[in-house]
């Protein structure tokens, strides 16, 4: 790989990993709330989580621009109070990737949480575990397959995210030009096919890596899972 | 971020090749490297409207310059035309192949046979110019069923190159700079609005070199670069 | 008083209406299948809420519908051997056994870990996953987990089911010892007349 | 809604529903193979299924163009033998939506299939059910939560699909201009914001509909599921 | 000969080495917990494959390691009451009961549907989901499902566990009838000495 390609890969990995790492707990929290609680507004929350999946990514990017942009309500607040600027920064690319990956992660996790037998949670409670300990020692580990599946889906979605990123974070080399944006940029050039193919193969290899990692993690916990499930 | 860098330039994707060459020329002159962000003119304009940090905007679409002027984001007196373009009818062909004159279809036949691609008239400037021409030539209704609206001028070129389209109404610049595209006829420029690429210094720009780069874009040296890629010069 | 229970509960078409007061340290519950024995234990453990009544064990009120008191399961301090074991499938046998050990000891542990493991004959299983246990092995681990959880009273739902005679005999002895020496209130559900006769003088026959 | 908006909605629904309906059995088959079988090449298949998630949608569209286009190997075959043409047709939009939805559907279904207790399949076999009957009477119904979750994810992804569609099927009003493409078109026009908002709201309402439908289906089978799971 | 079994199998650290030949229609298997009784039944049902040996029931070879014959479970025609019930959670009780009825009847049904339901006392449960059953109710449904599956032999893994005495007595009578009148080979796993003494003359004591 050329140094320029290295830079793109490094940036993409940084953006994607941060996006997935930040989204994992949020997604799990949402999945848990949606799976285990009945409250007014639950349906609205469900719909809201799905939104980035339904809207064309460009629109999501535009909404992010209106909200987190320097003139947007949250963006202005972040910039004035914390000095954090998201637009046109790699952090903005991470935000866009995170938002796009969220619905996929929530669904997979929710599916696994709903499959956890509540009788086991009950058993933990009689053994003296409070709600919190029962959650961390029973629900959370038993929904691991969903966390891993959600992680893989989220990683793949985040590393491939294009529309929201270019709209919200722009296409700035070294700052927000992730793999998909680099591919797009090359695709606009006549004769860019070879560069496109090279970059696409790199993207594929990266996510194969994520896939292998997740399968390995699943297998590591297979001693129990192969039987539990 | 610690390295010194030149101005941030938001530019229409169709200008990618000449601008990248100009960017290296700029560095060769001892300047700090530019930051180039390519996207569609519309995407860039919306980003500028929402407070982008860029110093310069180079648009392929007058509409969006007007939009930003109306929105009070920029001053139209600062707008400079840096290049122009024109339309051609183009097909896929071997490099340097000269078409025997009897094989060249008439314009009417060209736009009413098989699939002809151009930009989407609603979203892509290329397509808007093509529609203007077809309307003025009285060919629009006959051609419309044959048109495949592509999402950018680059995408239209791709469709011709992989021969999913039998031909295209494309920018002369693309036909001139791409080996396997053969322009078989030029479209009279007066049949559509002028195709101009406008550069403008954004009022929010704080970079000391931004003005200089705009001057450089309008220089003879820059014009030669644009011309090398098939663009017209103002 | 060891037990002062009055529980009123509807479950589908089945109504449970049980009341018992007793000074005995161990009471047995018996009755045909489906009469509501397990449901009653669930109410006592705090996993189900009776429609009305009160649950007072060893003078401690766990539930009272009139004063709207309803302690959560983890505050009741019961050692519950479930009819269906409910071992944690993602924890090995050892981790299952010590899960309840973190409970703040109001009472002391019934037996040491080593004694419990020896009594139940599960020493060779500590490193196994629950799925790799036979029916009787899983039963013994479930009993061990409840005994080790530092409980203030025991709920045993057919604890000897699927155990062989000699192992059952050993366990009965242990239960007698817990009843007499440690003075722990025990509710014992069983279908086996001889077990009940041997352990209990107070029998709640549900029907 | 204006007649033009109705037309867009009708087209979007047709494209999405056909895409999801065609993909469901394929996705379930792939999910089953990946969940229950170990064979050489399994990992490759897994990677292949994830591909459309990882690659930027434009690239997927471009690959579709090269494969299913008039000059592509499959496209040429389809056109010559069956007279079916996909490029620049609504059927092509459906293909693009299907390909993009596939990985999400497979993952959700696979998660549910892996959660089906094999002991129940064993029980069915001792009761005289062959592999096929055991599959249709035990594995399939018990993985219903995954089928529904996959269906919702797939529907949402398909109705929001933009990049691959515009690249493979172009943006032809009445033929391939689905909701996301219509939204994009309006977004490219200065002052199109109100039209964008209207169309985005329609997209949201449609997927809310799908969400409600799926929740209702889940609840309908809740008698068992609330307890099974 | 009713039974001609020789099974050699390793399971984790446990080795099963069982051989029995008998003309009796019912043989009992007993032995301490974890000795391999359930594993042996699984081999006979075709759910596990022995490392070596043969399984011949009523003259029909189900498995033979020398000739590499290994019938799949659905071709063996066994009625298996699992130690852990394994009711289908997504089917109501009725659907569970009739699941095996579609089997092509080589032998005739043991008992009519109505008789089976009456014997087991599960008539009022037919419209229930399995999760809403008590322990003993689920056990009876599992027995009913196996009996109704038109089996050519029965595998009963502690069938009377968690049933009350009177229900157990009724079932024992039914098993005796099936053994004597219908002449069906039965393998009966139990820990209960009195049950075994009553039903079987041939006892395989594993250890
Ligand atoms: N979720 C439920 N919905 C409706 N009815 C239920 C539910 N759970 C249990 N039941 C019914 O409540 C009654 C009492 O069940 P319970 O499990 O307490 O019985 P049990 O006395 O423990 O029986 P066994 O000796 O068979 O274990 C039974 O008739 C059972 O069918
Ligand atoms: N998946 C497994 N992996 C390893 N060992 C296993 C596995 N399943 C069962 N075993 C072991 O095999 C042995 C036999 O188990 P099996 O279930 O056949 O016992 P059993 O005689 O039926 O006992 P019980 O009377 O307790 O039901 C036990 O020691 C058990 O721990
Ligand atoms: O580069 Mo453009 O904005 O497709 O004309
Ligand atoms: Mg019970
Ligand atoms: Mg057993």
Automatic annotation (TrEMBL), chains A, D:
GO cellular component, one term: plasma membrane
Membrane topology (UniProt): Multi-pass membrane protein
InterPro entries registered for this protein in UniProt: MetI-like, MetI-like_sf, ModB_ABC
Places the protein is found: Cell inner membrane; Cell membrane
Transmembrane domains' residue ranges: 6-35, 47-68, 88-109, 134-156, 195-218
Domain ABC transmembrane type-1: 9-212
PANTHER family, alphabetized: MOLYBDENUM TRANSPORT SYSTEM PERMEASE PROTEIN MODB (PTHR30183)
Record's protein name: Molybdenum transport system permease
Source organism of the structure: Pontixanthobacter gangjinensis
Gene symbol of the encoding locus: modB
TrEMBL record, chains C, E:
Keyword ATP-binding (UniProt): yes
Keyword ATP-binding: yes
Alphabetic keyword roster: ATP-binding, Nucleotide-binding
UniProt cross-references to PROSITE patterns, sorted A to Z: ABC_TRANSPORTER_1, ABC_TRANSPORTER_2
Annotated ABC transporter domain residues: 2-207
SUPFAM superfamilies: P-loop containing nucleoside triphosphate hydrolases
GO molecular function, one term: ATP binding
PANTHER family linked: ABC TRANSPORTER I FAMILY MEMBER 10 (PTHR43514:SF4)
This protein's name: ATP-binding cassette domain-containing protein
Organism annotation: Pontixanthobacter gangjinensis
